[in-house]
Amino acid sequence: MSRANQKLPAEANRALFVKGLPYNCSTEDLFTLFAKFGAVRQIRQGIASNTKGTAFVVYEDVMDAKGACDKLNGYNFQNRYLVVLYHQPEKMAKAQADLAERTENLEKLKRDHGID
Fold it and tell me: What range does the record give for the signal peptide (predicted)?
C-alpha cells in the first residue's frame, strides 16, 4: 500500500507522547531513534520528578509520526519497553478535570464524616 493511501486513525497527529524511557537516555539518543521514521521537528524530554522517563516527539509529517508510533510502541530501547501514543491534549485535559472533580468529592466526603 502506498504511503498516500494509508488510513490514519482518528487520533493521529504529528505529536507523539512517549513513556517508559530510561532516565539516562539523551535527547540525541531519541533523535537517532525517532529520525529513522522521518524529519523530527522537536523532542522535549520530561525533567521533573513526575515527568522523567517521558518525552514529546513532534514530526514534520503526520505519516512519519504514524510510522514511528506503529513501529516503536512496544519497542525495546535501552532495555526498556517504550509506550508510544499520539498526543491528545483534549483527552489529557479531560482526565485532569476528572481527577480534580474526584479529589474535590473525596475531600467533601472526608469533611462530612469528620475524617482528616
Answer: none
